Amino acid sequence: MLNNLKEKLKDFKKIIRKFIPKFLINLYHYLWALSGAIFYKFPSKKIVVIGVTGTKGKTTTCYLIYKILSSLGIKTALSSSQYFYINEKMEENKSRITMPGRWFLQEFLNKAVEEKCEIAVIEATSEGLMQNRHKFIDFDICIFLNIHPEHIEHHGSFENYKKDKGKLFQGLLKGTVKKFRGKLVKKTIIANIDDFYADYFLSFPAERKITFGLEGNPLSPNHLQVIKYKLTQKGTYFTLNESSSSEDKFFTKLWGKQNLYNILAALSVLKALDIPIKSAKEILKEIDPLPGHFEVIQTKNFKVIIDYAHTPNSIEELYINVLDIFKPRRLLCLVGSAGGHRDKWKRPEIGKIAAKYCSEIVITNEDPFDEDPMQIMKEIEFGIKAYLNEYEFQKPYTIIEDRKEAIKYLISKAQKNDIIVLIGKGSEPTIETKYGSIPWNEKEVVLELISNSKNENTTKNSNRIQKSNKEKGV
């Protein structure tokens, strides 16, 4: 009965929101931000604050910044979609809200100040920025990673989405002058120069601007660039424009080209704080990939890769990286798309990308929210069919609504040197449906199914041996 009441309340809130003008909703969040800042006495004025935004890579970049700074003996706090850290104290973010409102960020910053943290890192989302959750937080370093079409229905257009991301950089110079270990911290914008929209984010006023990328001007003192890199099954080797010899080659266990950008963003923070970049070399070697972010599970015959990729751009990049690094015999792919009437345009695009790179495809549930799951899956199927018809060839694909059964099916199909790629969920703890949240842990599901598969094979082999022995009269 209590669950029914909760669902009715949730539906009532959705109906109410439809009739409330957006500016009133944003004002509501603005007042929450203001009241929280007043209550906690504007804690961001007492600590160096770093904000990170972008369509992809935010969580990994924030975590890298936190790990590098903490390993250097700098007391650091982190607020991200996956974890909350105050120094070494960690709490898992189970809310699925990357940038919480209602005083949360002000309370988080206040705790960081009380625990003598010197730096706080905040993952900033377009929705959080649109709803003024960043207001009255005095940022010192703002990082732009990249931008691709996402949340278009929610923001109204890509241009609005871009402008909402840009709110993080507005008013940077109006903040309090702060010091880090005796030195004044310059109000700094850090941006990925390889992104098409970098100029927009660099156009905001700042005391210092630092760029990073795989391209650009390696001789510029305010540009951090990867000169050479090699993607291997062990990890990634790379050399920076600031390196003076082959001994300065960096190594990370993080796979893929995207993670090079995330690492560059994190190292640019050291540059902004006047900390030698080479001091992070040994630290980077020890940092493991985050759960659900290009996470590889190795079995005797095949691999399973779990990743949060959920935009066409990030999905395609993931497939390319997997093919380039591991060179699998076949790529077996699980695809889905979030519902709730969000980003419907990308569903057929995801289908087309899967048809282009995958050997076999299973379409399944991701987070249907209040939409019909089958409708979402049919729209992905439309993209698969369109691609296969256009290029006049066939690939096996199927629809299995139950995500666990879909993964089980792919594991049963996997052969030696195949790779199964599961996208969309990463380390998210739930599947969201119109009936509420269903607890979910993609890695645990995979490990359970692999274990069950081994036990089934062992039983079958044992039965075959017994049958053979009986026939031989043993």
Give the SSE map.
Blueprint (H helix, E strand, L loop, with lengths): L1 H18 L2 H18 L8 E6 L4 H14 L4 E4 L3 E4 L2 E4 L11 H11 L4 E5 L2 H5 L10 E4 L7 H4 L2 H9 L12 E2 L2 E2 L3 E5 L5 H5 L5 E6 L9 E9 L4 E5 L9 E3 L4 H16 L8 H6 L8 E4 L4 E4 L5 H15 L4 E5 L10 H12 L2 E4 L9 H19 L5 E3 L3 H11 L5 E4 L7 E4 L2 E4 L2 H31 L2
Parallel strand pairs: 1-5, 1-6, 2-5, 6-9, 9-10, 10-11, 15-19, 16-17, 16-19, 17-18
Antiparallel strand pairs: 2-3, 3-4, 7-8, 11-12, 12-13, 14-15, 20-21
Would you mind describing this structure in some detail?
The protein has 474 residues and is an alpha/beta fold. The protein has two domains: 11-286, Mur-like, catalytic domain (UDP-N-acetylmuramoyl-L-alanine:D-glutamate ligase, 3-Layer(aba) Sandwich); 295-457, Protein-Tyrosine Phosphatase, Chain A (Alpha-Beta Complex). Helices cover 41% and strands 19% of the residues. The protein has 15 helices and 21 strands. It has helices at 2-19, 22-39, 58-71, 104-114, 126-130, 152-155, 158-166, 198-202, 257-272, 281-286, 312-326, 346-357, 373-391, 403-413, 442-472, and strands spanning 48-53, 76-79, 83-86, 89-92, 119-123, 141-144, 179-180, 183-184, 188-192, 208-213, 223-231, 236-240, 250-252, 295-298, 303-306, 331-335, 360-363, 397-399, 419-422, 430-433, 436-439. The chain has an eleven-stranded mixed beta sheet, with helices on both faces. It has a six-stranded mixed beta sheet with strand order 14-15-19-16-17-18, sandwiched between helices. Strand 20 (430-433) and strand 21 (436-439) form a beta hairpin. Helix 11 packs parallel to helix 12 (346-357), helix 12 (346-357) packs across helix 13 and helix 14 packs across helix 15 (442-472). The chain is globular and about 65 Å long. The model is unreliable at 465-469 (pLDDT under 50).
